[in-house]
Design goal:
Three copies of one chain form a homotrimer. Chain A is an alpha/beta fold. Among the domains of chain A are: 86 residues, MurE/MurF, N-terminal domain (Udp-n-acetylmuramoylalanyl-d-glutamate--2,6- Diaminopimelate Ligase, Chain: A, domain 1, 3-Layer(aba) Sandwich); 38 residues. Chain A contains five helices and 36 strands. Chains in contact: A-B, A-C, B-C.
Chain lengths: 365, 365, 365
């Protein structure tokens, strides 16, 4: 078991130790779960209040928080300090050394140094895995795939042919990269094409053959990208679907064919991006938000949870609603709707009067 | 093939047989699909109406339903009776006896009595499987995992290290338990932190390194929990993500890191719960509803389908809308909006009059 | 590498070649990515504008588009032509010949001619695979499953017992067919049943045992159906869940137990259909739309993205909103709400006048 002194923890977190104390820290926990050898983490108000009930002898607190009789390490940015602390105690899932006997690695595949391939992993023809890449178990890596260095694939990952991944890519359970795009065509206009033209659906529209448009593009994932459990990123039709460096994607997210997602984006769980969208750098797409196809979102924008985006927005937009509108407009609309509700009541008071005037007025005219 | 007499079925369902009849029942079906040896299930109005067209000689019906010339078993709670009937004919998916030769079970794993492990299942270091637990195929069970008795894992399940499961847990295809939480931090405030402060995004916000906050917590699943296909429950950051006893989770549901979900909850397909939420006992979260992070929902609440929950609600709340409001308020809002619409029409009538008065009034003043 | 002359491409696409030119086409690409041996695809306005900057010697364009000095193939329906072109260059994922040594095929399974089964695929008892069916890798096919001819299953697919698939069915990564339906019952009415009756939740509603209603129905998938990555289609309770011929389903879609989906439907990513719905032929369900249970949607209807459908709609409906209403009504509502907002402003102007009149009127009366 790893243990640390308070001085070591103070150094690593860049904090300020309020009182020296000889305690060996072997874990971190919220105040109520902490024991004498645990550093209590009190990042928010509730947890700070719980410190008085904690058995911990020391706590990590935001700058300026003083707790009588408790040794504290004060830090300017508690979440950043927490990240550093957790890394001290974190152990990655174990992967066997080398190639597990049950793994099926095509003879043409090229493996970098120190690559670890777990049980039941299939590596297809001509695939290249960068140094230190680890694939835990039960995953399929298609032919012509290329990964950078230090990638880590949790179990159950499926990667289609010719997908390219950068360095340090983390894939959680069940991620799908490079499934075919959802792309079809009919000989004659189908219901959607008709409805787009004139808002109606024609009587004559009988069933016709639906042809699959195969996807000959692929998926290109940048460096330091993480993709959450059971998320799906489809391959491009002709071009590639692209995810920029440092972008982080949560669980059950769908990114459609041909999308170009910028760098440093955060895409939260169950969000969906339809085909051919262009998302700028550092865009945040909150949970369950959805974007229609062919939309462009400028850099540094924030799309609120559950937003339905039906048109493009420029950089630094903060948008919400279905269909999406700028946040300011959304708030104004809520205010107006509230006033309209009040107006209904007011108007009821004046209506008899108006009615009377109207009748009199008719007589006069 | 199992067959039953009407008397046996009457006993099992606790119903009332209206007429003795010597018929051997080998299956159950809706009236239109039933043949002479099938018990017709007529639980709702449509199906009751269809009984006249059925070939079945006997039917299960709600209490008080009489069909001329048809033998019926009347039951007080038809869905409960249906459950009992289906269990008479149900056969669980077959799993090989013992450990399939292709399974890879670490030498340190401890298997209870009568554990069945199917093809290509990987069981990692120090994992403990309770008595009668069955794992069908192609699944990964990480190290230090512990399951209770009688668990049943359908194929393609991925369970991360140290996840704890109670007794009688059912996991459907492709479930992910214990993927890493979606948790990151930057050196300086990012776009979201800025926007939360003042509703805007600063000019100066260039790309900065995004650090992953690893998850050292795990997932704890109670007894009798069922989790639907391809759903994902992420591990906690420091504490565990917890799912209470008897809670049932549908397909493609996402439950974020640190969440505490109560007992006896129903969470319907494609619902999502962001990190650190606390959900009381017996809460129903309907399909595609979403909860922002750090929200508390009191026991016995119902969250309607597609609701977007942005704040906490007390027990016995029934909420809907985006953002979520109590059902009564939601219905009142709809009424007010309707009235506001009518007011627009009314006001048009009176507007010329008001204009005239205003002009006259100006003259007078 | 396959190459084609412009004449060959003109023939295959059924287009009109504007100028003969001796060029060997080895790929297709958007104008800016095309080189001299690439046919530039300029289907939309942006791409047509980019043709002037392209290195391509020839382009596919919509009928009537003339680009000075560029050889073009004009086509009436560019997407249809694109589909034909892509098929010229498409290569399906490679599957080993015959049965891979690591595949586990039950001795009772029956394989048609030219069936290919990849690594770590498990085929359970009594399963029948039609001619030319290919299963890439790491998939589970339950007992009593039956597929038609020419099916193609990408890696990581999980198919439960007794699921029936037609010819030419394509399953993308991680598809779940035949997981159990989400169906439970309690001895006494639960919170939802109570709330449906009187809109409230009773004080007395303590926790009670929740019984699973097992699913003894299965899933039946028609011919030419494609199902996207990590989508889930649950088995029926007693009857089968049915997906009609030619229906195409995107990624992360959920289709609940007992649903009957018609022919030629398009169901876009993250849409969800709760149990026992009946969807007519050629219905389009756009992304993230959701349907409550027991709803019927008539043929040729379109359900817009993010719609929440809470009641049935007849054929040729175009619906949107939460809860869903016809498109025309939705647009009218938006107009009315806008007018109500304007009315608030107008009314403020007249309110002092009305107040004055009211006071005077009171005096008079």
């Amino acid at each position: 078991m790893k243990t640390f002194t308070l001085e070591e923890i103070t150094n690593i977190t860049g904090g300020m130790l309020t009182k020296a104390q000889d305690v060996s820290i072997s874990m971190i926990a919220p105040p109520l779960l902490a024991d004498e050898n645990t550093l209590a983490l009190a990042l928010g108000e509730d947890e700070i209040a719980n410190l008085s009930k904690s058995r911990a002898k020391a706590a990590l607190v935001p700058l300026g928080v003083n707790i009588d009789g408790l040794t504290t390490i004060e830090v300017e940015r508690p979440r950043l300090a927490m990240m550093k602390l957790i890394n001290m105690f974190y152990a990655a899932p174990e992967v066997n050394t080398g190639i597990h006997p049950s793994a099926i690695v095509h003879e043409t595949a090229k493996l970098g140094e120190n690559v670890k391939i777990g049980p039941n992993v299939v590596i297809a023809r001509n695939t290249i895995l960068g140094d230190n890449t680890q694939i835990v178990a039960n995953s399929y890596i298609g032919s012509g795939v290329k990964t950078g260095k230090n990638c880590f694939f949790h179990p159950g990952v499926n990667i289609g042919d010719r997908v390219i991944l950068g360095d340090n890519v983390i894939l959680q359970h069940g991620v799908s990269l490079g499934a075919d795009g959802f792309s079809f065509v009919t000989e004659k206009p189908d219901n959607i094409e008709q409805a787009k033209q004139d808002g109606t659906i024609k009587e004559s529209n009988a069933e016709q053959k639906i042809y699959k448009i195969p996807s000959i593009g692929s998926v290109v994932i940048g460096n330091n990208v993480e993709i959450g459990a059971n998320s799906t990123i489809d391959r491009g039709t002709i071009e590639n679907t692209i995810i920029g460096d440092n972008t982080k994607i949560d669980d059950l997210v769908m990114i459609g064919h041909n999308c170009k997602v910028g760098k440093g984006c955060l895409i939260v769980s169950q969000a969906g991006i339809a085909g051919s969208c262009v998302i700028g750098d550092r865009v945040v797409i909150a949970g369950q938000a959805g974007l229609a196809d062919h939309i462009e979102i400028g850099a540094d924008s924030i799309i609120a949870a559950k937003t339905g985006v039906s048109k493009s927005f420029p950089e630094k937009s903060i948008i919400m609603g279905i269909p999406a509108i700028p946040r300011k407009e959304f708030i104004r609309n809520i205010k107006v709707m509230k006033e309209a509700g009040e107006l209904v009541t007011k108007f009821k008071k004046y209506e008899p009067l108006l009615k009377e005037f109207e009748e009199n007025n008719d007589l006069n005219s």
